[in-house]
Design brief:
Distance between the termini: 87 Å
Largest sheet: 3 strands, mixed
Number of helices: 11
Radius of gyration: 23 Å
Strand content: under 5%
Oligomer: single chain
Helix content: over 70%
Number of strands: 3
Strand order of the largest sheet: 2-1-3
Shape: globular
Amino acid sequence: MSAGNISFAKDFFIVGFPGLKTEYYGTVAALLLLVYVCILVGNGIFLVLFALEKSLHKPMYYVILNLVVSDILFSTTVLPKIIARYWFQAGSISFSGCFIQMYFVHYFGSINAFILAIMAFDRYIAIRNPLRYPNIVTTLNIFYLCLVAWILGNGCPLMMAIRAYPLPYCAENTIIHCYCDHISITSLACTNRALYSFPAFAFAMVVLLGPLAFIVFSYCAIIVAVLRISSAQGRLKTFSTCSPQLIIIALYFLPRCFIYLSSNIGINFSTDLRLVIIMMYSLFPPMVNPLIYCLRTKDVMESLLKRLKMSTNLQISHTKVNVSTVCS
């Protein structure tokens, strides 16, 4: 390709699902908006409860707090732009804005992987060493672990953004994706993509497979410990506390590993199907995490019911006051 055909794009254009017909744009936008509202409301409820209820200021809930914040920020990074693309046909995103979005998409994704590993560590200690749990899983230790997660999660996304930003990009500027990510951006570069994609792939695998390996080890040890419990009821209760986390972990890690591997070893399938899988594993966990980690938890449910009862009583008292004022 001649030098005259190579230029830095001023703007990128997010296509979304390339096979989607125009008449379905409004429906898809409404569905994505509903998902975004559910994520904000579900995770927002926990944030409010955590701020109001001192009973939730425990190590495990600090971990959930970090997961909630990461989920909200990830969804806010991804969804508003693709919703605008389908609702207002506003798919254009600035050159720098696309790289900023790419950085935060991979950053929050990395943080989630580390946070899930911390949650697995919490369950491991709670079941394998219950007597030492209060001394090991302290608020200070959880703070340090979460801080490390936020710091370590920055490395790979920052490296990918720094290496991809200066590349020469062709006149083609359409992002065949619902948001800017490393693969969709670097595929537009007028250079040997392998020099940039393979290191990024290797770092992504480390970020994914490192926490996943620790999680698998933790839950294997948990399963061994549970099987040694003599009481069938005790085994069932322990499994019931871990199974929802295993479901979310499976939904988070397995599709991601599949997509990364398929993109780098030449497995081809429909672009729309690939994007549907990516959007499902990106948005489904943040939407159901409040149900899995929060509303199934006794302390959170008690706090929520307490606040709802207080709100109901306050509303009834206001109604009584208004009625008595009218009658007098």
